[in-house]
Amino acid sequence: MEFFLISLLNGVTYGLLLFMLSSGLTLIFSMMGVLNFAHASFYMLGAYFAFQISGHIGFWPALVLAPLGVAVIGMAVERYGLRTVHKHGHVAELLFTFGLAYLIEEAVHLIWGRAPVNYGVPKDLDGTLFMIYGTAFPIYRGFMMLVSVLMLVALYVVLTRTRIGLVIQAALTHPETVEALGHNVPRVFMLVFGGGAALAGLAGVIGGNAFVTSPGMALHVGAIVFVVVVIGGMGSLAGAFIASLLIGLLQTFSVALDWSLGGLFKPMGISFAADSFLGELWNLTLASAAPVLPYLLMVLVLLFRPRGLLGTRDT
Amino acid sequence: MNTRALRSLAVAAALTAASLAANAQEVLRIAYIDPLSGPFADVGEAGLKQFQYLADQVNKRNLAGGVKFEVVGFDNKTSPQESLNVLKKVIDSGFRYIMQGNGSSVAIALSDAVQKHNERNPGKEILYLNYAAVDPVLTNEKCHFYHFRFDANSDMKMEALTTFLAKDPNIKKVYLINQNYSFGQAVTRAAKADLARKRPDIQIVGDDLHPLGQVKDFAPYVAKIKASGADTVITGNWGTDMTLLIKAAKDAGLNVNFYTYYGGGLGSVAAMGDSAIGKVKQITEWHANVPTKETDRMVNEFKKQNPKLDYYYGRAGTLMFMLAEAVKRAKSTDPTAVAKVMSGMKMDTELGQVEMRAADHQMIQPLYISTLYKQASKGGPAEVKYDADNSGLGFKTDARIEAYVSAQPTSCNMKKP
Q: Which of B209, B251, B308 sits opposite A113 (nearest CB)?
């Protein structure tokens, strides 16, 4: 029971973190159809901005200013880059963001160097929230969960309950009509892209000090955010949320289980030596395969339900 | 003596002088083949800066008998395939010495290629200076005459580590967590074997292998360690795999000691921050707070020239100075002549005598176990004079393990020219 509860908690926390990372990507994809390869780079920028700002005026202003800074960069990218590339179709957009990711990484190298920076958790949030069976649950993890849930709620409310949200949704399917009604559609897209970048930036502010702020951090999370979006269903916010939790729980619980294929035969008195034929495979434990399970899940989803859990697009 | 004889004498003298001058200006170029881009670029770049600084020292102090050293960086993107391309390139441009350290997979590929090249091109041999790749096979099954390793291999480090561990009666339950590739598996294997031999009463309560660089959240592993009741964790993890593990352990309030190979790895101390104080130990051939004079001077001078970097590899100094001495004794920069001198060469360093063992070209040297504390100027122990990564944290020696303790038998059977 103790282990189950702790793993459940860890799984949910990790899942919410994944959602925080991938919500911006889903937003941009669902509203604009752009698969943004530079998403993780905006996450990294958020972390570095926060590192810089919090060194001068503290963490709380950074929590607001860093995502805003990233949003400005995101909007500039949309206005002066993507909008031009857009004419040439989705492949060109994809390649554009792919190249952008490298440019951002090099820029980070030039400005902040190649080694990790010392961006720590703020004093106010450093400590233990509660104890569960003798294991501490840090305040910061609770804070991360809270922000993630707030992100989901805020996105949902903005997109479905506000005027701007309705315009965004309408612009997705009927851009000409929306334009005819007097709305500036390109500006709407610019705002959406900026908003998605800001969400990535916010994740960076919070993820940067919980983990490691280094030029490698974009690469570190780059793949998993796409897995979340694919499993959840391209462009579905709710799908991404469910997929995040699913991956979080799957990975956390499988780490704990030292089951192996060979172990299934143990009760029958058969065991496999490590040096026997395919011995490595028979003795591969679920625990050591845990971090690659999400990718396995992604492949399975693509094979059997290409649109993802809650996806509406078939591409 | 007629004028003609005089003239020819003068010509001969002039020629000799010219050749002497050429000799004095002879340059030994070393190709440094390591990551200069990608996720490990910081490590590769810091290493390059340190080797170039040391080449400077060799030249300024004329340690190589008039030969100048030059270290040139080549990017291998930590990839074995790319390294082989680079190797071809540097051989074509006339390099006879190469140097590499990051990643045993790269090292094995390079070492094999160097061996083949040397067999096929007698008289044009390449000498491979390995300063950090620690897979034991490189000085056992896969050893050859032109490969020299200056770091202790992973079995030697484990031997030293477990010798130290075995003396602590408080250690009862050990947990192993490593990256799932040749090096991580070697660490796990050696830890189990050594502990079973030295302290059979110690229980191995966990043995995890996780994919390299894939884990984003170590909390589940920490929960597992906690549930196992371990009092000590041994890990060969490096990079983010290590820093994230330490951070997650601190967050969950896990109160165990971490015996690491790379706790002081470049950038790691800054990334772990205060969460590592008093908990993270490392096994290395040197750290900045081992009291020395000459190395101390170099640590300070290097810092002045590169404020963002640390003088990190103690063995880099040993390597460059030993190579210089070998060139001087061989009176030649020919790799075979230099390798013959270096094979079995003993040298006195500030840390004691080191030996490049003739049987397998493995450096036998004393090792240090140290723990991370606050720097003395920030209220830490007085021994912690220097910090790492400008973080305000530095290492303090727990024990010095003499060279003979960690020396391992070798299965190497090399052909000598």
A: B308
